[in-house]
Amino acid sequence: MSAIPELERLRASIDNMDAILLHTLAERFKLTQQVGVLKAEHDLPPADKAREARQIERLRQLSVESGLDPAFAEKFLNFIVAEVIRHHEKIREGQE
Ligand SMILES: C=C(O[C@@H]1C=C(C(=O)O)C=C[C@H]1O)C(=O)O
């Protein structure tokens, strides 16, 4: 039996999941952009390390519960947050 139909079925679901991830990320960035504007208006610093530490702790816990590598979850969050902070700095400088 050919593996192709099963491979195509799995890849179609993977494509759907990728779309969900991307749309979810886009909605998250809409929210963080609003936080960036609020911070710039009130002269608050772009990064909040205490908040990030709480998010990492929470996501590490959720990862264990859902069978995901907690180290990966932490790296993934850090990657996204770094991009968010880059945007916040730009908003602060009036470039966004
Ligand atoms: C969005 C915020 O700004 C930064 C980005 C965060 C994020 O992307 O979740 C979290 C903390 C901050 O370093 C915030 O302070 O809530």
TrEMBL record:
SMART domains (alphabetical): CM_2 (SM00830)
Gene Ontology biological process terms, A to Z: chorismate metabolic process; salicylic acid biosynthetic process
Residue ranges annotated for the Chorismate mutase domain, each copy included: 1-92
Origin: domain of life: Bacteria
Name of the top EC class for this enzyme: isomerase
Alphabetically ordered keywords of this record: Isomerase
Entry EC number(s): 5.4.99.5
InterPro entries from the UniProt entry: Chorismate_II_sf (IPR036263), Chorismate_mutase-related (IPR051331), CM_bact (IPR010951), CM_dom_sf (IPR036979), CM_II_prokaryot (IPR002701)
A Gene Ontology molecular function term of the record: chorismate mutase activity
Pfam families xrefs: CM_2 (PF01817)
PANTHER family: CHORISMATE MUTASE (PTHR38041:SF1)
Designated name of the protein: chorismate mutase
Source species of the chain: Henriciella mobilis
Lineage summary: Bacteria, Pseudomonadati, Pseudomonadota, Alphaproteobacteria, Hyphomonadales
